[in-house]
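Reviewers of the previous submission asked for a worked example of the structure-prediction workflow described in the proposal, so we include one complete record here. The input consisted solely of the amino acid sequence. No template or homolog information was supplied to the procedure at any stage.
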Amino acid sequence: MKNLHVIDHPLIKRDISMLRDKSTTSEDFRIVLRRLTSLMVFDVTKDLRLSSYKIETPLELTEGYATADEVILVPVLRAGLGMLEAYLSFIPNAKVGHIGLYRDEATLKPVDYYAKFPPNLSKSFVIVIDPMLATGGSAVAAIQYLKDREAANIRLSCIVAAPEGVALLEKAHPDVPVYAAVLDRELNKHGYILPGLGDAGDRIYGTL
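From that input alone, the workflow returned the following structure tokens.
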């Protein structure tokens, strides 16, 4: 799993535990998910390019920095929306694309129903956002959609990853790094991550 980057931090471990807890309400789940995503943003964006410029402090002239890459955030609907605001709070000038995929309960394969992206994908720093990397089918499909539209600099930001999903994504898209808060044990026969945290979309929006 050479493309997997697990972001290890005490505060992340604390928040993962709160997300796993079945007694956590939807309101608290959203708050913790947003906070946990914020803790991950720094690692996911650590290789953003910078440009320099001169700024004047109250005392003297010095060098300042601005991000040089155009950033496009692509939440996978619907659960990815729960992570979006955390990214936008740090990168408010980012553009946002959306891709809608759901997993067929019989085949466990992704089915697409919506896709809309900003222009300039080929020249942008693209972050696909989805809390769960389970079977990997949705992530593989979403990234292929982006590559078909000439996106080249892509990474995936998730909260919980399963080994099966990481392996499938690495096989299909070996050039795409995966940033996760935790690597869990396995998938069950229904394609859910164990120990996992349940269905992230249902827990975010209270549609259990």
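The chain has one domain: 4-47+70-205. We consider this example representative of the routine output the project will generate in years two and three.
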